[in-house]
Model the fold of this input.
Amino acid sequence: MRRKLVVGNWKMNGSLAQLKELGAIASAARNSPGVDVAVCPPFTLIAPARARSAGLAVGAQDCHGKDSGAFTGSVSAAMLKEAGARLIIVGHSERRAEHRESDAAVRSKAEAALRQGLQAIVCVGESDEERRAGRAVEIVSGQLAGSLPQIGEGEGEIVVAYEPIWAIGTGNTATPQDVAEMHAAIRAELGRALGGRGGSVRILYGGSVKPDNAAELFAVPDVDGALVGGASLTAKDFVPIIEAAAGAGR
Ligand code: PEP
Done:
């Protein structure tokens, strides 16, 4: 049985003042022992967030693929771990688009996270154009095959996040049927790539998850949680999503 995982991605939002939201979010996490909950604020807020969030994991939104070196402006997984991160999102579509990250770059970032014993959340997802052309499963399966690291003994956990690009920040959510079809395809790809271990990898859905659609999405087979952008910024919106995940596990 895979535990539900709910992860907030604050993107380039937040401030020290906004960390006050973490009190109620951490309390909801402690009251939902069957659910793993994490928040990924910008790099500069990881250490202060960690100090204020008992019961809640804190993560990062990106890392470099190398452990150290002459990479101005970059941050390594080891540095993020030292700051208190337990997980790292890699290959978010905003980074794939804005920073032209390839599948190979995403894989090296995921492997860097795993080398530190952290969770690597590998994001995949098709564009609107690709879905309209009937190529969604093909595109996502290809991204996954190229981005997925190999799990080694004693290393961290791989999580996959399916995030259709057209659903991110738009208020348009994929239908439960579309999500079920894609998550089944991802599960099959995980089996091909990782053998029996593919069955234990958690697959999150992301794309305009809100308090009013979370329960329906969590009821879809092979949806093991959510990666939440806008609705993770306030406890008012994020706590009901955590509670919906707890309800789905009962
Ligand atoms: C995201 O950025 O990963 C995301 C899913 O954003 P939103 O929930 O705002 O669509």
